[in-house]
UniProtKB/TrEMBL annotation:
Pfam families assigned to the protein according to its UniProt record, in alphabetical order: BPD_transp_2 (PF02653)
Name under which the protein is recorded: ABC transporter permease
Lineage: superkingdom: Bacteria
Membrane-spanning segments: 26-48, 68-96, 108-132, 138-160, 180-200, 231-251, 271-298, 310-331
Membrane topology: Multi-pass membrane protein
Single annotated GO MF: transmembrane transporter activity
Stored CDD domains: TM_PBP1_transp_AraH_like
The entry's keywords: Cell membrane, Membrane, Transmembrane, Transmembrane helix
Length: 337
């Protein structure tokens, strides 16, 4: 039979799956996180019977909007093979600073930009320590964390209640769409996710972020603006922390210098569970969003059970361990190829 008349044998499903996984290995952890999220939701529905309801599912976004914003900023930093331990403290500092300014009669149109600039300046400080003083990201961001927490205590040692209607409106206003609820804080979080995803996937800055995380030395040899890009990554992370401070202030209705303790670890865990490699160069903002929803689902299920919230930490820790192992397997397989 000639080649012109021969029938092409179709590829098997296994071959297609192997081809996809070899070319799109970075998506495997994201799909794994999505599978875990769906499994948690289905298990919750099977056990409780009223878990998959619009009100419960809407609360995943309403209650974790601030964490979602932090996760977007953290994704930028981790993609460069860095880390930022200051985001929880920056959230507390900007929140208590904003609450103090509002209590003294400063207009909200001034307060919110000041909170964002405050977060961006701390991010810039961390980036400068890393790039120009050759300080390890862990140590530099630890210094930023202590500085931000100290500034929070300097502003006030006690809680400051927020009574400004414009800030409270961000959380109290609920848009009801066929039983689904969405607040302005949720809208802000989704817009941040969309902006982060678009920047990383469709801009030169985003491609440079991935290049630096993949191999910083090669990125320098290619003439990419490594210093400027890494500085901007930490500034973006700090700005997101400042914006999360705005959202968290609306959510709590007050500022408190001890807010956000441990939030940086929750943020890193959500980003890693969402598929971003701690070694940098691979990951997606949408994956980080899935990681936040996994965290929120576990917290909600434990609340339904009436168990202590310490089980949330235990469960997230176990998942984090599994995903770190998965990441190591992917990295080693990619190295062999």
């Amino acid at each position: 039979m000639s080649a012109a008349t021969s029938t092409r044998i179709p590829e098997g499903i296994g071959t297609r799956v192997r081809r996809f996984t070899s070319r799109r290995a970075s998506w495997i952890p994201v799909f794994a996180a999505l599978g875990i999220l769906l499994a948690l939701l289905l298990a919750g529905q099977a056990y409780f019977g009223n878990f998959l309801t619009p009100r419960v599912l809407s609360s995943l976004l309403l209650d974790n909007a601030y964490l979602l914003i932090l996760a977007v900023g953290m994704t930028f930093v981790i993609l460069t093979a860095g880390i930022d331990l200051s985001v929880g403290a920056v959230l507390a500092f900007t929140a208590i600073m904003g609450a103090r300014m509002l209590s003294e009669g400063v207009p909200v149109v001034v307060v919110i930009p000041v909170m964002l600039i405050g977060g961006a300046l701390i991010g810039l400080l961390i980036g400068v320590l890393i790039q120009f003083f050759d300080v390890q990201p862990f140590i530099a961001s630890l210094a930023g964390m202590f500085a931000a927490r100290g500034l929070a205590f300097l502003v006030s040692l006690s809680s400051i209640k927020v009574e400004d209607p414009a800030i409270l409106w961000l959380q109290t206003k609920l848009f009801n769409i066929d039983g689904w609820y969405l607040s302005p804080t949720g809208v802000i979080a989704l817009l941040v996710v969309a902006a982060g995803a678009l920047v990383l996937q469709f801009t030169r800055f985003g491609r440079t972020i991935y290049a630096i995380g993949g191999n910083e030395q090669s990125a320098r040899l290619m003439g990419l603006p490594v210093v400027r890009t890494k500085l901007l990554a930490y500034i973006i992370c700090g700005t997101c922390a400042g914006l999360a401070g705005v959202v968290f202030t609306a959510y709590q209705g007050a500022g408190y210098p001890l807010n956000g303790i441990g939030t940086e670890l929750d943020t890193i865990a959500a980003v890693v569970i969402g598929g971003t490699l701690l070694t940098g160069g691979s990951g997606f903002v949408l994956g980080s969003m899935i990681g936040v929803f996994v965290y929120g689902t576990i917290k909600t299920a434990i609340s339904f059970l009436g168990a202590e919230q310490s089980w949330t930490r235990i469960t997230i820790g176990a998942l984090l361990l599994v995903f770190v192992v998965v990441q190591r397997v992917i990295v080693s397989r990619s190295s062999r190829r």
